[in-house]
Amino acid sequence: MCSFFLCLTLRLCVSAVNPPMRIDGKVVLITGASEGIGAACAAEFARAGAKLSLTARSEEGLKRAGPAALVTPGDLTGDDTRRRVVARTLERFGAIDI
Questions:
Q1: What percent of the chain stands above pLDDT 90?
Q2: For residues 98 and 86, what is the distance between their CA atoms, to the nearest angstrom?
Q3: Are residues 29 and 96 in contact, defined by beta-carbon separation less than 8 angstroms?
Q4: Dihedral angle at the C-alpha atoms of 4, 68, 29, 93, nearest 10 degrees?
Q5: Would you state the pLDDT for residue 83?
Q6: Which residues pair with residue 70 across a beta bridge?
Q7: Tell me, what's the pLDDT at 1?
Q8: DSSP strand pairing (70-73 vs 51-56)
Q9: Contact at 8 Å (CB) between 33 and 62?
Q10: Exposed e or buried b for every residue in 78-94, given b needs 16+ CB within 10 A?
Q11: Cα atoms found within 13 Å of the Cα of residue 43, Cβ hemisphere only
């Protein structure tokens, strides 16, 4: 239920901005993307045309959440994982927009 409201809120925020916020082609880095709110955000951003970089501890969950996304499994409490996620995202897409 919470994911539903998050998705609805994202849709409303994108459509309420004047002019509407352009998501298509933006690079979005989502943490905790293997399930719950993170997976719901990944689905909504993908639907809006974003390029996704997803991270969480569960590689299997990440692949389900964003089959076409760049996935970097790992525990973000570790500095090396955080650096790897950012470096891989920049290497693939050249920027992080959101």
A1: 70
A2: 12
A3: yes
A4: -150
A5: 97
A6: 53
A7: 45
A8: parallel
A9: yes
A10: eeebbeebeebbeeebe
A11: 15
Q: How many CB atoms lie within 10 A of CB 10?
A: 18
Q: Identify the helix (H) or strand (E) that includes residue 30.
A: strand 27-31
Q: And the tokens for 64?
A: 């389900």
According to the model, what pLDDT value does residue 67 have?
84
Residue 75: strand, helix, or coil:
coil
Q: Report the distance separating Cα 14 and Cα 79, nearest Å.
A: 32
| Confidence (pLDDT) at 66 | 83
pLDDT tens digits for range 65-91: 888 999 999 999 999 999 999 999 999
